[in-house]
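Weekly structure sync - notes
Attendees: PM, LS, DV (DV joined late)
Agenda: review two folding runs queued last week.

Item 1: First target. Sequence and structure tokens pasted below for the record.
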Amino acid sequence: MEFNTSLSQLPDPSDKRIALRVTLPAERALKKGHPWIYDQSITDISHAGAPGDLAVIFDEKRRFLGIGLYDPVSPIRVRILQARQPAAINVDWFREKLEGASKMRAWLDGTGTTGYRLVHGENDGMPGLVLDRYANTLVLKLYSPAWIPHLKEFCAALAQVSQAEHLILRLNRSTERQTGLLHGLSDGMVLTLQTPPNPILFKENGLIFEADPINGQKTGFFLDQRENRLRVQKLTKGKSVLNVFAYTGGFSVYAARGGAKEVVSVDVSQHALEAAVRNMEHNKLTNIRHETIAEDAFDVLARMKSQKRLFDMVIIDPPMFAQSEKQIIAALAAYHKLTRLGLGVLKKSGTLVQASCSSRVDAETFFDSVNKTAKDMGRRLTEIERTGHPFDHPVGFNEGAYLKCLFALAS
């Protein structure tokens, strides 16, 4: 992997460490492995720092507790890289972390899968950073400008660990807005010399999908639903399937391979649905009746209910509804409405597959909401399975859990 000049223009991290002390609750959380230090938990700081400065946390007896990336513009003031034992944060440190994460996922290649998450942020010891693989292209997504001064060393380590040819940079919205801290970097920038193909084709459980990491949602595909898609495939033989919030048709393709007699993909984006059609073509599944509807999902479900159009399986995989504590009530209302609408077009004894990716809404609350809504409608749900994160999206702390999915028969 050879990099272009964009990395050489980035600043080096400061040699001067920031010394911090934190509240006792924050100390206890850090000792239990929590990866964040919030701004309100800091009781003493040696000096003001810049994004990416390394901050060392000590207890009241000056004993080392952890070292992490300092971010003065975020409520998460320090993202912990190393706890308990001191360590030099350098190329060797990054290489060791990347090697560990890569080895954990190496077995996925044997499943006919070349698209998966290589680094899952905090849960792989690199908070605020995600690294996804799409065949020979890697996509690096940053959730904090604190990573910018460390990118040269991170990429040098990555080149030693990965055989990939291309690296694309993605930035979350809050990081993208902080242009003064990006030193010329931008969302969708290619960091390597060679231009990656567009679209990128990769495999998942033997199926071929395309991804657009530069312009697509997340890093180009919803890799975290891989195992749930495979579960859907096993339940669709001879069934009519409605896939709501279909994006580029991940669930639709699996349903078709499972033997569905009809698949309807609904998404507000016509561009995404065109990719869904191509994904069917990539896998030679064009003999399956596949209808695409580029409209608002709520409107489509309401119209289908009025038309009494029913399906054997309804899949509802919406975007994140709650990005903050204030949005939880509205998110639960949206899930409630989707459950009502989804059950309104689901046949008796049909299968409901409903997911949530909102970390602010915990699993029990989400599952209870779906079951209560069904009960209020006079529908009885017999749960088949409750699922969470796939292997390549591990969860190491409570706030890291976001994905939950319910499979249930609705009588």
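Item 2: Second target, run right after the first with the same settings.
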Amino acid sequence: MATDVQVPALGESITEGTLAQWLKKPGEAVKADEPIASLETDKVSVEVPSPVAGVLIEQLVEEGDNVAVGAVIARIDQSATAAAAAPAPTPAQSAAAATTNPPGAGETPALRTDQPAPVAESEGEDEDHITTLSPAVRRAVLEYHVDPTKIKGTGKDGRLTKDDVIAAAQAGSTPAQAGAQAEAKLPSSPEQQPSAPGPRPSPGDRREERVKMSRLRQTIAKRLKDAQNTAAMLTTFNDVDMSAVIEARSRYKDLFEKKHGIRLGFMGFFVKACALAGKDVPSVNASLEGDEIVYHDYLDVSIAVSAPKGLVVPVVRNADRMSFAEIEKTIAAYGKKAKEGTLTVDEMQGGTFTISNGGVFGSLLSTPIINPPQSAVLGMHRIEERPVVKDGAIVARPMMYLALSYDHRIIDGREAVTFLVRVKEAIEDPTRLLIDL
């Protein structure tokens, strides 16, 4: 008996998604609630679980197709076995297999870019644990000439990611050894495949690659452009001496981690500082709806987090009422979910103010873009020692540039500067955070 696999509910106001990747192939056994496909929506990636245990006998859509909520994308046979359900090769597939692997050429098939590439998650696992490489991972495998079966995946359920391939290539063998392995196992380019004869490219050849934008990237692009077109955006800057915060972290980091089980980071200080400054300048934590300004007596901070498929902004709700430990734990949990691609739509909706830390990537200065319908975003940057004047003497201090982009329609320049100065004062003297100054 075959059971239909339907697209699950994807969140409020989301009616469709894109089938980004099949995680199981026809003929493979699946367990109940085991993911068989990955869907990409405008905001998050969602895995489609199997409703029953059995064998995947049919895939009804292709990777890259748009599918509506409730649509049937596959069928699972509860009574079949993996061996019985394995689809018979078509004549074209048989001919291709004969061409790619002539008698005596070895038992390991060459990895191709025009078909899914199987890879075992770890040595010694049986065929039920073989998964499929995503297109991005396949391209990385071909580019870096690595054996995917020798790489341990760090993605969801141990899946291989592009970063895993790059890291393995950087930590691997010499170019000559890598080339020998690639020649034995992987074609380095389509021109080297037996099925695509032609001249081999010289090292100086120039290439191009066209990759369709993901739904998430398209949504990010649209929202950012809408923000530029709609808001009267302006950015004000200041710099902050991080000496006091660095000293506090150094003094209490071990006790903090021992008590709370989480490291004390910089973000907790900045969230607290923004909450304090927002009380003095409420318009920075407001939003514009039509011809009305909505003021919030709470601070829901959108924390910009880098994920494999793009920037996401999960929301730390009621951050003004949280302790340092609660803020750090929430941010760490969101960072883990972002890496695994398990953030939900609800976790990224809302938010009254955004903090973006480009400093973790080495950014010295930037003009961040507002996240509508919010009216402001704080940009943090890298910390570096710079000469500053203290008490008439030139000294070296760990300094950070801060940037506040704001919607000039509802925030005056005086208010924006005042907010940023309040943040600076709280960071340079963290005692203010404790006594509400």
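Discussion on item 2: The longest helix spans residues 243-260.
Action: LS to circulate a short write-up before next sync.
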